[in-house]
Amino acid sequence: MKLYSYFRSSASYRVRIALALKELPFQYEAVHLLKDGGQQLSPAYRRVNPDGIVPTLENGPDVLTQSLAIIEYLDEKYPDPPLLPGDPTDRAYVRSVALQVACEIHPVNNLRVLQYLKKNFGISDEQKSQWYRHWIDVGFGSLEVRLKAERRVRKFAFGDAPTLADICLAPQVWNARRFDIPLDNYPTIKRISDNAFDLDAFRQAEPSGQPDAEG
Amino acid sequence: MKLYSYFRSSASYRVRIALALKELPFQYEAVHLLKDGGQQLSPAYRRVNPDGIVPTLENGPDVLTQSLAIIEYLDEKYPDPPLLPGDPTDRAYVRSVALQVACEIHPVNNLRVLQYLKKNFGISDEQKSQWYRHWIDVGFGSLEVRLKAERRVRKFAFGDAPTLADICLAPQVWNARRFDIPLDNYPTIKRISDNAFDLDAFRQAEPSGQPDAEG
User: Fold this and answer.
1) B160: distance to nearest CA of chain A, Å?
2) Per-residue pLDDT for B37 more than 90?
3) How many structural domains compose chain A?
4) Taking CB atoms and an 8 Å limit, are A76 and B95 in contact across chains?
5) pLDDT tens digits, residue range A6-16?
6) Range of the domain at A114
7) What SS3 class is residue A52?
8) Which chain B residue's Cα is nearest to A138?
């Protein structure tokens, strides 16, 4: 398998965690989102993934895009350990936590959105930070309410083993920390993600440990 | 089943299509996103869904959030007709099209994001239209490249029956039309979604036919 990835991309980070949890070896192909006007937009990379975003996973003839679709694929092809529970209601819960991060928080704070705000609306660095923090606070705020009241939360978002929910949550927490956003108001999110960061697979996937990591 | 929905919400629209395709009857509970400062933010609705967004589906004791998680749940509980293919590689393809709409286009053009841009950055209506159109053009542009080259595309995004991909695509096309965004550059997207709009289930789910529809 070959993973096209950028060390700081949280969508790439999610797939790296899934691959590590399933102990699937892969070749790391770095795509630098800031160099050369964005290597993800190069014609060469666009031939692999026309969307011009990371990650892309190649597995033999399969070329897969969109982190959540890739992780569900990995879970279906390599079911051990499972990243989703068996019961439809529980699966919907796990997916809803993952999607809350992937649809409500992450896209709005994506690099290309921040670039558009700066270029077209001329926002200041201070306004950019406020924007970034706002969407994390909105998303983590309501997620904390859900998780705190949720009987299925234990060591992780669902029970005592990591699932797709934790795979999406931990990289978003990593992003929040990178931007010095305090997590004091989100004790359940903090506890769950700390438990995740304690696992080898999550540590292995961390941005700082990737071949293209920068200081 | 009870669906908390807003007629113009495209996430609600997706779930309405899935329910209609599976011929599952449901009670429609209107949540007006603009009235009363946003009924989705009321304490009463927040007790149902702490995220303060639509849709929410109640099915007996199950309270389900996030449109894609809801649709996968419906597909697992009521498998006929299937909304995903059987093969993992094909499933990943269908999900990736759905997620490209749900993660790359829709969140950035969401009502609350537009409200933030206006309130905090003071953007004009013209700038708001440009923003809206930009993210549809970026998303549809690369999606058109993928779909045009994709051998699995036939009448719909995957073969000759609608899947999760078309369920996400059609409401986004409906949004684009509402904002007078031309689809000439996206002939495959246009063809597929026109085929979808021809189906009873898609027609039934259209915003204009909902109990809370406005002109």
Assistant:
1) 21
2) no
3) 2
4) no
5) 999 999 999 99
6) 88-202
7) coil
8) B51
Q: Which of B41, B47, B51, B123 should be substituted to probe chain A, the one whose Cβ sees the most A Cβ atoms within 10 Å?
A: B51
* CB atoms A92 and B142 under 8 Å: no
Supply the mean pLDDT for chain B: 96
Burial class (CB in 10 A: 0-12, 13-18, 19+), B12: buried
Identify which of B50, B51, B92 has the shortest CB distance to residue A73. B92
Is the Cβ pair A96, B69 closer than 8 Å? yes
Set of chain B residues whose Cβ sits within 8 Å of the Cβ of A93: 69
Q: Which residues of A touch B68 (CB under 8 A)?
A: 95, 99, 103
B66 belongs to a structural domain: yes
pLDDT of the residue at A36: 86
Beta bridge partners of residue A5, listed in sequence order: A30
Q: Which residue has the tokens 């994709």?
A: B150
Share of chain B above pLDDT 70, in %: 100
Are the Cβ atoms of B99 and A142 closer than 8 angstroms?
Answer: no
Residue spans of beta strands (DSSP E) within B39-198 = 56-59, 62-65
| Residue B28, strand partner residues | B3
pLDDT in tens, A46-64: 998 988 899 999 999 999 9
Task: Report the pLDDT value the prediction gives residue A134, as an integer from 0 to 100.
Answer: 96
Note whether A49 and A73 are same-domain residues: yes
Domain endpoint, select from A81, A116, A150:
A81
Element at B210 (helix H, strand E): none
Instruction: List the one residue out of A27, A29, A9, A30 whose CA is nearest residue A19.
Output: A27
